[in-house]
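Because discrete structure vocabularies remain unfamiliar, it helps to consider an illustrative case, giving the amino acid sequence and backbone structure tokens:
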Amino acid sequence: MGKSSTPGPQQKRFAAYLEGLAQAAGHADRIDPLKSYCKGLLLAGERKSVEPMAARLAPDNVSRMHQSLHHLVADAPWSDEGLLAEVRGAVLPAVQKHGPVVAWIVDDTGFRKKGKHLSGWRTSTAGS
């Protein structure tokens, strides 16, 4: 049997979250690229730069998707304060359901980088 075309609760919640981010981006021309960029970050694949994301998002029109994503992240004049306020408004109430926020701890060191060097440190001295 095929997949249902009716979105489930998680898909609806994600779509509403993306819609809020898109509106916070401040211009109608940024809505689709921002939604595509966010979806691209969640797709399978190791590399999350705009070129490989464009290939996964629009395999039949990689060049156009790449240009759209690149313009969004490199040139489009959107407010990071506005987007962060939107994220905070969506996330904070969910977090506060479990009690007051005492501290935020953000740790992105859990993802091992590719290659032999990490942030200027050699991971191995063998052969040096």
